[in-house]
Write a structure and sequence with these properties.
With 222 residues, this protein is of the alpha+beta class. The protein folds into two domains: 1-77, no CATH class; 91-220, GAF domain (Beta-Lactamase, 2-Layer Sandwich), CATH 3.30.450. The chain is 46% helix and 14% strand. A hairpin with a 6-residue loop joins strand 1 and strand 2. Helix 4 runs antiparallel to helix 5 and helix 4 (45-90) packs parallel to helix 7 (204-217). The longest helix has 46 residues, at 45-90.
Length: 222
């Protein structure tokens, strides 16, 4: 024998179609008790609604706090990038520029290892002995040429001997191509922490740093 009781969907549809139902049946609201969402026992419908609203408010407050922290972190990073850009503009020669870059990345961005290589000819013969112009293998040059966005992750099968300080043992890398009209170098940042640079991390600021460094270095190239 078929049940004559309405289904839940029918009850929901009825209440949607008759929004004045509880206005006409106000006493029913006071008589309705529901299971408490925070433990045993029951609460009135009005109390259940209040609890639900409080839960929603807590969730929204947590989301807002997260967004505020994210915004503050972005503001702090933007300030660091701005300081770096001012320093690069103020550098009066290549040695000062490279020293300032390495210092800023270590101190402001907590990057322990910084290396940089340029394979375009220096614009001044006095810079030929700079470590940045040491020979670079074809494998690195070819790999960098194909790099359309900063690379983050483990060492990508390339040899970086001599790029970092002696006894450095990097476990994660951020590699940024330096380019003008074409690719002319590679900025390598690395860390002992294997989670410091990871494949899915955001690269917006790494890209901007690469663009700033590229623009600053162009005047020292032939």
């Amino acid at each position: 024998m078929e049940s004559t009781e309405p289904s839940e969907d029918q009850v929901i549809a009825y209440l949607h179609e008759h929004p004045q139902f509880f206005a006409r049946q106000a006493d029913l609201l006071a008589e309705m008790y529901l299971p408490s969402p925070h433990g045993s026992g029951t609460v009135s419908l009005a109390e259940r609604q209040q609890l639900a609203q409080r839960d929603r408010i807590r969730v929204l407050e947590a989301k807002l706090a997260g967004l505020m922290r994210f915004g503050e972190e972005n503001d702090a990073t933007s300030d660091k990038v701005h300081r770096l850009s001012l320093g690069l503009l103020a550098a009066h020669n290549l040695e000062v520029l490279l020293q300032l870059l390495a210092h800023a990345l270590r101190e402001d961005f907590a990057v322990p290892y910084v290396g940089l290589r340029l394979w375009d000819s220096p614009g001044n013969a006095a810079y030929e002995g700079n470590a940045a112009f040491q020979p670079v293998g074809d494998d690195i040059r070819s790999w960098t040429q194909k790099l359309v966005a900063p690379y983050c992750g483990q060492q990508p099968g390339l040899a970086f001997e001599g790029w970092f300080e002696e006894n450095a043992t990097p476990r994660s890398y951020a590699l940024v191509a330096l380019r003008g009209e074409s690719v002319f170098g590679l900025l390598a940042m690395a860390s002992d922490d294997e989670a410091r640079f990871y494949p899915d991390m955001g690269t917006l600021y790494l890209k901007r740093i690469g663009e700033l460094v590229s623009a600053a270095l162009l005047r020292y190239l032939d």
